[in-house]
Fold these 3 entries.
Entry 1:
Amino acid sequence: MSTALDSLLDLLDLEQIEQDIFRGSSRSALVPRVFGGQVAAQALVAAGRTVPADRPAHSLHSYFLRMGDPGAPIVYTVDRIRDGRSFTTRRVVAVQHGQPIFHLSASFQTYEDGLEHQADMPAAPDPETLPTAAEMLPRYADRFSGPGVVDRLTEARAAVDLRYVDAPPFGTVGEPREPRSQVWFRTNGKLADDPLLHVCMATYVSDMTLLDSVLLAHGRGGWAVGDVVGASLDHAMWFHRPFRADEWLLYDQESPSASGGRGLGQARIYTQDGRLAITVIQEGVVRVPR
């Protein structure tokens, strides 16, 4: 297991300070604020720790309310909304400096048999044939908006092996193309068998690249290039089938719309053997600096 993955696992291992109240540390990402995927994953950890282990998460819906301060702890308060015979519902509010910065609702369900069908997995190359982030990012060093961006990008993603199928937005600045992006990802090391951990890790990664497809449609390179200003607004996920975040997952992303200073991304995440594991939808602020 990599040192970076150990650090991320520590970040997700929240401290319980009272019944249904947890505290997490935070760290900065590429910009001087808390990475949204971190807050979402930590909130799901908090919710999951109040739910029986035989009820895995099947969905989450969340809103990013304020920019998180990476220099301060985050307190997560869990409301036990409902404990039914099959479903459990939790609401989590993340607070910093006395103000809510994030709100999440999550639902958990006992295992059941039922009808089965799924959308087919799209074609994608073998992830082992694609360059790693450490191999790819230096190729685009001249595209980024300031010194040290390659190092910070590499460090921010060191816990995860994330491989782009096609050139990322910062690799095709000024060249609009179909608003679709694919990446393969898995953690840089094996994880414990706890299903909640794998769901929370996928939640963390899901916020890294989902709005890339919005940028591709307009030939914009993104926040690392400096030609747009962006932030996540809301994030929803549905967990359809069991998966492991330490095994290859294909993140197939597209953007059906951008308007009003906002962009919408939607995606499906498949296991390498073709099972549809997760559906994701996110809207974010996408503004062009004047």
Entry 2:
Amino acid sequence: MKTFFVTVIFLTCLCVESQNKIKLWEHNPPTDNKIVVNDKNVSEYQDNIPELEIFLPDKSKATGMAVIVCPGGGYSGLAYEHEGIMVAKWLNNEGIAAFILEYRMPNKHKTVPLEDTWQAIRLVRENAAKYSINPSSIGICGFSAGGHLASTASTHFATSGTSTRPDFSILFYPVITMGTFTHQGSRDNLLGENPTIEDIYIYSNEKQINTNTPPTILLLSDDDKVVVPENSLKYYEALKMNGIPAALYIFPKGGHGWGFHETYEYHKPMVELLSGWLKSINGQ
């Protein structure tokens, strides 16, 4: 009886966990990234299966907002804990639904991450009622290379059918450009070592901003040597040239990749600034 009881608990836990994740694609994704995962010990969020992990806030504090979170990792992996789970839990505390996107790595197949992101936005928007979300208040958040993906989704989107346009963007120390000041590893993994001039232009997101780009907040460190601040500065400048509401916060130090670690020296003012910005765009 004891063994049966333990087994029931274990199976119940598995069921609860499975209900918190949904696969992005019912069948095969549009583009194959040609990655074959043979190692059964690979982490579940780097198994080349694109999914959304769902974190919903307590109904008593839900604001109706939602954020799709894109962890960074240089387009070669996902910094899932401090740029994913920690973020989702903080958003829930703010009354915001969070969906961590386990996007596939491009492996030089440039459209793969964006296809996954578009599909994630569609799924969240189409199921807004199920998750008690306002379908016109779905944002995207990205860190580093995930910030490039989030800014790509914010500048390359379809409005026919279910819109894939985010309603707002949160960018942490993002890779923005594929030209001068790019992060070379992210560019190589996305576009290959010898990208065309056209691809460099298309995926340099500071060049793709127009009047339909969503309101954006950018947060980064002045001493970031991995993804230099010029990335965010170019994006912010282009946002302002197109009349897009934007906020830019550059902290004196911290380097790159601090995510939502509470040990980051400027974590408290950072989350206070972000919380205030989210309330302002939600009309609170």
Entry 3:
Amino acid sequence: MEPMSATNLSPTTLREAFGHFPSGVIAIAAQVDGARVGLAASTFVPVSLEPPLVSFCVQNTSTTWPKLKDLPCLGISVLGELHDDAARSLAAKTGDRFAGLQTVSTESGAVFIEGTSVWLESSIEQLVPAGDHTIVVLRVSDITVHADVAPIVFHRSTFRRLGA
């Protein structure tokens, strides 16, 4: 296969190139007026140990993010290797994003998905405008690790599992 070379930095070319970097997939979710609201992101990054900070990026055109961005607490679930369908439904533009998913809600309103590898209860520390996205920096207030659940990986527009 010939190497791809492009001087045209179109969104399509960039998406193809960026897709070569594997990433985990998270769900960001909370209770909004008694209903579960959430979205998926494949741009999750640990930022700092002291203070405990993580980040993800959200498209500025998202219609879900405005419902979440002013809440005092958000749940971050690192999706497990059996969550292909969950990642797709959480990223869908329409329909019940939580169809078929078991969730746990905290008193603070954070929503977590059962069967995921890590739960992070968090609050927004900073919003940083970045082109057609916003970088959301979150302060982690509580963490639960499910060590027996392997994460799912998003690579070249496909969900993949880690090798043994």
